[in-house]
Amino acid sequence: MSAGSGDTLTMDVPEDAGLRHWLSRFNPAAKLLAALILALGLVPSADPVTGGVVLAGTAALVPFSGTDRRTLLVLGLPFLLMGGSTLLVNLLYGDQGAEGALGAAVRVLAIALPGLLAAVSSDPTDLSDGLVQRLKVPERPAMGVLAALRLVPLLAHQWRTITLARRARGLAARGNPVRAVRLFFGRLFSLLVRSVRTGTLLATAMDARAFGTGPRSRARRSRWGRRDTLLLAAAPVLLLCAYGVSCSTGTLVLLWTGTA
């Protein structure tokens, strides 16, 4: 994955790419469908074993996503915070105890990681083509997804610019944690304003080019191969293995019953 001029997000995967880019060779539509199957299949489970098996199986694919661990950690930080907050809230106010709280947190991470891997291992244009051609998503939201992914590096660049501009004006925390929090939310508000302006300009430009108003020609075909079908079939197999392990160990807890 590379950011060229700061406003584009591209992924160049050569045909002879090694195992590090193995996951990038699949059709993005297949990866999204597999992630959706895993997410829906984990909804009934409330124990940590079922979600843990799916999480471990998905985490095993991280080295083959073509993304370095640092980038993946930064992108996954909101989900880590979500999992941690879920653990804390259920631990303090839930009626299932520590095991139920851990199961809820693991399930959140197990649902989030497949979708995150599908996004970071897919070229934005290929993802948009797959949404329109394979999943029959309307062009307007598909182009919105493409535009959002293309703008991710631009927002990161704008965040650095805002930080440097405020530092040049002498706005620094200087070891004061309260001031650091105030400055952080100030930068966050500035980024929100810039992103709204950028989004408005982009939406106007897309409307001017008549995106989503009628049939359009395709510059590239979204190809679906045997490996994509196998990936799609692997998702329910992983779910069956997860439920089988939790059932055999006697730890399976269903969400609507609270019992195995």
Helix/strand layout:
Elements: H1 28-42, H2 48-59, H3 69-93, H4 97-120, H5 124-133, H6 139-168, H7 177-208, H8 226-248
Helix pairs in contact: 1-4, 1-8, 2-4, 2-8, 3-4, 5-6, 6-7
Membrane topology: Multi-pass membrane protein
Protein name: ABC transporter
Keywords: Membrane, Transmembrane, Transmembrane helix
Explain how this protein is built:
This protein is mostly helical. It folds into two domains: 1-137 and 221-260, no CATH class; 139-211, no CATH class. Helix content is 66%, strand content 0%. It has helices at 28-42, 48-59, 69-93, 97-120, 124-133, 139-168, 177-208, 226-248. The chain is globular and about 60 Å long.
Strand content: under 5%
Q: Classify the helix fraction into a percent range.
A: 55-70%
Poorly predicted segments: 1-16
Distance between the termini: 43 Å
> If you average the pLDDT, what whole number results?
81
Number of DSSP helices?
Answer: 8
Q: Decide which structural class fits the backbone.
A: mainly alpha
Task: Explain briefly what this protein structure is.
With 260 residues, the protein is mainly alpha-helical. The chain has helices spanning 28-42, 48-59, 69-93, 97-120, 124-133, 139-168, 177-208, 226-248.
Question: Which key phrases capture this entry?
Answer:
2 domains; 66% helix; membrane; ABC/ECF_trnsptr_transmembrane; ABC transporter; 260 residues; transmembrane helix; mainly alpha
